[in-house]
């Protein structure tokens, strides 16, 4: 059962691919009755519902353009007026720039709301490259293995089914993972600076056990809604 909130929590969750952002957001949804709002889902829902802002977004996307910050904010404002968001929201994918962050602050102020926290799921890049790039699976039964952390008992033979065929995802290599992380840091740096400057940035070490990370996040949510 979700805990009772005394104040609407507006949270921003930042984290690179592989940091477990989706898993953690779902746990926060369950524990605190929050709603995760990702930009892509927001846009699709608004277009499908045919709201004014949704129609504007559709026109831009149909013309192959990028939906402006103003339209995204209008869609976010509409969505946050719906009753299921009364406990709070977890924003995922917006804001992406310091300019968008400032526009979000203005929207929240207009709504009588305040940003609870921008939470950065921090990863150790080198460890992340090792974790992701070492993954492979049995081609027959799908059992997951890892070069460093979970080798088959007999080299080259699946523990579960005895198959000797394994496969790796093409994008699970060190180079791709490294460049994904670099792109993430480059994109996110201005946001980190922005929220640090406002004293709203919280950092969570996202390299350990899922339950410990969830507990750290829950502690932050509690402090911003108490
Ligand atoms: Zn197998």
From TrEMBL:
Pfam families: ADK, ADK_lid
Catalytic reaction equation(s): AMP + ATP = 2 ADP
Positions that bind AMP: 39, 44, 65-67, 93-96, 100, 169, 180
Binding residues annotated for ATP, in chain numbering: 18-23, 135, 208
Chain ranges of the Adenylate kinase active site lid domain: 135-171
Region feature (NMP): 38-67
Superkingdom of origin organism: Bacteria
Enzyme class: transferase
InterPro entries given in the database record: Adenyl_kin_sub (IPR006259), Adenylat/UMP-CMP_kin (IPR000850), Adenylat_kinase_CS (IPR033690), Adenylate_kinase_lid-dom (IPR007862), P-loop_NTPase (IPR027417)
GO molecular function: AMP kinase activity; ATP binding; zinc ion binding
GO biological process annotation, one example: AMP salvage
Family listed: Belongs to the adenylate kinase family.
PANTHER family listed in its UniProt record: NUCLEOTIDE KINASE
Function comment: Catalyzes the reversible transfer of the terminal phosphate group between ATP and AMP. Plays an important role in cellular energy homeostasis and in adenine nucleotide metabolism.
Cross-referenced NCBIfam families: adk, PRK00279.1-2, PRK00279.1-3, PRK14527.1
Domains (record comment): Consists of three domains, a large central CORE domain and two small peripheral domains, NMPbind and LID, which undergo movements during catalysis. The LID domain closes over the site of phosphoryl transfer upon ATP binding. Assembling and dissambling the active center during each catalytic cycle provides an effective means to prevent ATP hydrolysis. Some bacteria have evolved a zinc-coordinating structure that stabilizes the LID domain.
HAMAP family reported in the protein's UniProt record: Adenylate_kinase_Adk (MF_00235)
Protein name according to UniProt: Adenylate kinase
Lineage: Bacteria, Pseudomonadati, Pseudomonadota, Alphaproteobacteria, Rhodobacterales
């Amino acid at each position: 059962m979700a805990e009772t909130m005394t104040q609407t929590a507006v949270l921003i969750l930042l984290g690179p691919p592989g940091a477990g952002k989706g898993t953690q957001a779902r746990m926060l949804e369950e524990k605190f009755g929050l709603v995760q709002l990702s930009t892509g889902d927001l846009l699709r829902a608004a277009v499908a519902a045919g709201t004014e802002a949704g129609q504007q977004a559709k026109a831009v996307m149909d013309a192959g353009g990028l939906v402006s910050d103003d339209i995204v904010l209008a869609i976010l404002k509409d969505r946050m007026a719906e009753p299921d968001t009364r406990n709070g929201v977890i924003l995922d994918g917006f804001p992406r720039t310091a300019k968008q962050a400032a526009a979000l602050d203005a929207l929240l102020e207009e709504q009588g709301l305040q940003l609870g926290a921008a939470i950065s799921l921090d990863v150790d890049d080198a460890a992340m490259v090792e974790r992701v790039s070492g993954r492979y699976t049995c081609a027959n039964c799908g059992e997951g293995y890892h070069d460093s952390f979970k080798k088959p008992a007999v080299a080259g033979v699946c523990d579960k089914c005895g198959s000797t065929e394994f496969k790796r995802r093409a994008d699970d290599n060190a180079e791709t993972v490294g460049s994904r992380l670099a792109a993430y840091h480059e994109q996110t740096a201005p946001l980190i600076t922005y929220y640090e400057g406002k004293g709203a940035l919280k950092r969570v070490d996202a390299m350990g056990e899922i339950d410990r990370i969830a507990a750290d996040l829950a502690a932050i949510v509690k402090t911003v809604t108490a």
